[in-house]
Amino acid sequence: TEALSERLANSRVEADRLADRAASIETVLETIHGITEQTGLLALNASIEAARAGDAGRGFAVVADEVRGLASKTKDSTGEIRATIEELQQAVRDVVTLITAADEEAASTRELSADSRSALAEIQEAAEHISAVNAQIASATEEQTSTSAQIAQRLAAISGLANTVLGGAGKVNTETEGLSGEVRRVRGLIRRFAVGEGG
């Protein structure tokens, strides 16, 4: 009976530790959610600026749309991970409840009864469920990391395209000034010609 009580106490410690880990992951998810929202807004603004740039901004618009899509995917993944964590937290609470019940029963009866064996079986089943959910969290977190890396690459591409668009705009401005000079020169020739004809 003492060995059983010790095992139950250890199980309670492990359950509390897992609950703390789930809470930490949820905090990280809140940070990721905030970054995702900001990324979506940046991508939207980038699309607007690309539309203003016309043909020169087409490639820029494509990348901005891809970034917005990745941000949306990240938001969905974050929601799925949060749901999984909530399921994990509920499973931990269930395990703690079962451990408490089994511990009280062990202390009062000082023997392994049929009810205690049933409770231990439920604890084992719940622990296996926690292990499976934990594996899902690890997989989802890995996918989240990959998606964040893709967003970083797209943002770098947006920065490069923005520089290209700005360079093209400067070139257009230079060419426009050149054309204005040519127009003034032609007008001067026309006036001189008109004056010559009149004389």
What features would you describe in this structure?
With 199 residues, the chain is mostly helical. It has one domain: Methyl-accepting chemotaxis protein (Helix Hairpins, Orthogonal Bundle), CATH 1.10.287. Helix content is 95%, strand content 0%. It is built from 3 helices and no strands.
Please identify, by name, the CATH architecture.
Orthogonal Bundle
* Main pleated sheet: none
- From the spread of the alpha carbons, the general shape counts as rod-shaped
Q: Taking Cα atoms only, what radius of gyration do you get, to the nearest Å?
A: 33 Å
Q: How would you summarize this macromolecular structure in one to three sentences?
A:
95% of the residues lie in helices and 0% in strands. By secondary structure, it is mainly α.
List the main descriptive attributes of the protein structure presented here.
single chain, 199 residues, rod-shaped, mainly alpha, 3 helices, 0% strand, Helix Hairpins
How is this fold's topology laid out?
Blueprint: H1 2-53, H2 58-109, H3 114-198
Helix pairs in contact: 1-2, 2-3
